[in-house]
Amino acid sequence: MEDAFDSLPAEVQHHYRNMQDDLYDGITDAVVGGTEQALAWGQSPANVLAHGLVAGMDVVGQDFGAGILFVPEVLRAAAAMKAAMEILRPLLTETGVEKIGVAVIGTVRGDIHDIGKNLVAMMWEGAGFEVHNLGVNVDADKFVAKLLEVNADILGMSALLTTTMPYMAKVIERLEADGLRDRFTVLVGGAPLNAAFAEDIRADAYCKDAAEAVQAARALVQQKGVHRG
Amino acid sequence: MDRLLDFLARHRSLVIGDGAMGTMLHAAGLEGGGSPEAWNLERPDVLLGIHRAYVEAGSQIITTNTFGGTRFRLALHGNENRVRDLNVAGARLARQVADAADHEVLVAGDIGPTGEILFPLGTTQPDDVRAAFAEQAGALVEGGVDFFLIETMSALEEVQAAVEGIRSVTDLPIAATMTFDTHFRTMMGVKPGQAMKALHELGLTVIGANCGNGPAEIERIVTDLAAVKPEGVYLVAQSNAGLPKWEEKQIHYDGTPEVMAEYALKMRDLGVNVIGACCGSTPEHIRAMRDALGA
Lengths: 229, 295
Hints:
Structural class of chain A: alpha/beta
Strand order of the largest sheet of chain B: 1-10-7-6-5-4-3-2
Number of domains of chain B: 1
Order of helices and strands of chain A: HHHHEHEHEHEHEH
Strand content of chain A: 5-15%
Oligomer: heterodimer
Mean pLDDT of chain B: 96
Distance between the termini of chain B: 25 Å
Strand order of the largest sheet of chain A: 2-1-3-4-5
Radius of gyration of chain B: 17 Å
Strand content of chain B: 15-25%
Helix content of chain B: 40-55%
Largest sheet of chain B: 8 strands, parallel
CATH superfamily of chain B: Homocysteine-binding-like domain
Structural class of chain B: alpha/beta
Shape of chain B: globular
Number of helices of chain A: 9
Mean pLDDT of chain A: 93
Number of helices of chain B: 12
Number of strands of chain A: 5
Largest sheet of chain A: 5 strands, parallel
Largest interface: A-B, 32 and 30 residues
């Protein structure tokens, strides 16, 4: 678990704020350098992840939602975070940071839009989930097989098209038919969706952005009382 | 002679396009996530019926069912090696209906985004995307389209790749529209004025907006496009029929034919030359638009 931001020395706080700015600007070299620097100071990987990366990505997500940033800026920020995660991931595993749950995520059949979905996958990983990202054009068979294989807690589905969003209902119907629906928390997202749609197809929640997806995943997993070492 | 510009000139610079294809295919039983283009060979009867219904409603341009006809998109359905067959078939179906129509109808060869993000922002090389558009365009020419409609684009780089791909195989006219559905910009952040300038610099003279979040949004976008439109450029608007709502296990759009008729009049007043519609619209909407315009 990370330390509270306020409890950190002023210069470390300042360093993390700079990292957040660099992440916002999508400067991969600076974000990677900042990650290495913080680790060299003896900061825990959990601290770097939470205060250097996730906090910065939260702002990126908010500003994307507000129409201040657009897809290119989000992609650059995501690439910077991804590069830093390459450094942090093995360290997080080594330090045995508690895994809070297992998630499977993908863009549904017929759809290829994966920017938002990849952002959610990254933020879930940042929040401590083990994430299995199945990519795009994923059919029900593939979702179900992976959910069972990794004994997942959460299924995340994304669609950007009105022509593909109905496929989410098919996946859920399939889970119901197989008697598996109650085993998984199903979260859905994508531009044309809304909460009423999620409710109607019997998903557990609609998430309008990556930050909501993280909140929802945390809350629903806690509700279910999932604990993993 | 540019067949499209000539057509526009002969129709006093106001022609009516068609409406949605996907909406019509889903209504005819295409399942969510299924391949629309595969129906060009599997269900030609359905495609002929849709094109005829639009022509009967007053469409003067009908658009081929080839929006996802590049190999990148066809690959989602394992059809990446059927680019030629599916696009030729799609073009021929529209051609057949246009040739049998009781009024002059042009066939627009539909070209949509590959869904790829181009290097350096993404990993797909522009050359590969250009080649994919060229491959699709060649098949559409073979099937007999009159011009190309590049639509629903969000990245200027991809419009450029499409124009260059088409130009490498044919001199047929090209119209292009982008989708400004994200805070009045495209998903990639392109503003209407920026799009007008960039597309005109690519040599295009038929430029506009399609899809998006309904008539009110398009009205603002078209106003911006018209404000910076160079001399000699024709405007295209193809709005969705309102916003999608999920009802009774299906997507419904909340824009009625009356709403779309009003939209058509607004577009005319803003100086739009090709007025059509996109997702959620049907021949009923096009008929209401035609009646309102008195065309």
